[in-house]
Amino acid sequence: KTLKLSCSTLAKTIQRFNRTGSTQNSPRNGRPKKLSAHAQRHIQRLCLRNRRISAASVAAEVEGAHYNDLN
Length: 71
Fold this sequence. Notes:
Elements: H1 7-20, H2 37-49, H3 55-65
Region (Disordered): 16-39
InterPro entries: Homeodomain-like_sf
Protein name: Transposase Tc1-like domain-containing protein
């Protein structure tokens, strides 16, 4: 009642701390990013510079710049 949290929230937090030693959320699973942060910034700049550019043109420019992080 002092913390204004439900009993289940407290119990799960304590269990997580005992299991991992931390109360932080664990990283989630998911598909890895195809583009690096640098490539994403490049795409943003392209689109802001020319708002009428087509998606195909952006894709061609990114492919030509070899920003993909794929091995």
